[in-house]
Design a protein that fits this description.
Strand content: 35-45%
Radius of gyration: 23 Å
Largest sheet: 16 strands, antiparallel, barrel
Helix content: under 10%
Structural class: mainly beta
Number of helices: 7
Distance between the termini: 15 Å
Number of domains: 1
CATH superfamily: Carbohydrate-selective porin OprB
Shape: globular
CATH class: Mainly Beta
CATH topology: Porin
Number of strands: 17
Amino acid sequence: MACFYLNPSWAHKPVADQPARGQPSLLVPQPHAELHETSTALHATVSTRLNTIFRTEGLSILLNNREDALRVRDLSAGYYAASEAPGHILPQISAFRSRLQRQGMTFSFTYKGEAMADVGGGISRGMDYVHELTLQTQFDLGRLFGFKGWTIHTLLMERVGREVSHDRVGDYNISLMEVYSLSGHSVAHLTDMYAQKSFLHNSVDLAFGRMALTHVFATSPLLCSFMMTCSAPVAIKLDAGFSVYPKATWGGRVRLRPTRDTLVQIGAYSVSPLNEDISGWAWAGEKSTGLMIPVEFAWQPFFGPRKLPGHYVLGFAHDTTRYADNLGDIPANSTVRRHGGEARDTFYVEADQMLYRKGGHNQMAGGYALAGYIHNTPDVSVISDEFYVGSSLLGIIPHRPHDRFGVMYSYYRISPRTELGQELRMDAGMALGPHVNGPQTHASVLEAYYGVPIYPGILVQPEFQYMMRPGETAHIPNAEVVGLKVIGTL
């Protein structure tokens, strides 16, 4: 489970406040808004509300005053995990939740199950199942012990199952199921344990401890409504530098809002292999190989009289670890020479823009277009380049205002250095390596889903995926995969 929170509360004013002359009035909530605007208590309290350093617009100053909602008042944020159904399965314990929250503790217990079947192409017909159980808690140290502004976040996770990509499709680089564990089965994997504190009149937010990078960098709730890109694009989370659930690492990040429409965050995280510390508790046994330093800038404008939000992200990350050349073993008489150890850099651009508003005034109440591009240092990365484009549309079927339909196309380019090494070994009659049928070049996947909140706290999401060039070669037939994801929140 991964959530991305955006709450630009630089200028919260009472609802009765009036906009400046010549500016549009606030958007009035529409019918059915309550269901999608009501997040769990945990979502509401985890969200970081940052004040601005400079009380002005940044890039949005170029927009017409009537176009930019930030000139009027902050909207209800509501930019949280769209993949979860609103509400709880057991409203009977709401009073208990409220008592805990007043005392300084919030919690969320979630089940996420995925069953996916190869019905055409790939290497075999059949179905695989995975599930994830998560217990997420937050402790307000101000209410509990008087440490004002301090919070502690923890997340325990259990994952079990088999991956349809490996068993049925024949691909070992691109996971078609979200919750398949990189580190194997684990009964109680400690994924997060970190502290958070705001400073300087709530204009700087600091978090440090055990956490995954893709919890806050290179992610969004729209990405996490898809199986493949949760909690970040595949090219981001395949390599060790960007730790991804359930893998956590020691580190911290600082987030600040220079202007009302911009957000900047920078982090520093220890790097260790993704398949190390399979329990999440053996901190002393982890071997650090380097330091990952990500930097991210986001522009968050609101356009038009309907206040359509956009999120435009530019990111860069440097991993100081010295990685081996992807060339691998090559014939002794080859004229191609292996490079020495090289650090890895990652550059990414991600964007989403609401196209229409439906069912409310928060940031998830509408349909979005989204796209992104990722580039990694080619010689030492599994995937050198990825781009994706898609849409996430709310309420496209009449009388189903809260259903969400998503479709995304993703393209993946395997490192050219990997391809070269495989070509040299194949020409020399050497083994190419496990699960490799030929020189690997590229693959692409088309994914579509339709999410239906059938009951408070329960989301049912049919899935379809069409993978082109499984294994990144032409040796395995294109695969058709269908299945179902179910999410339940206690």
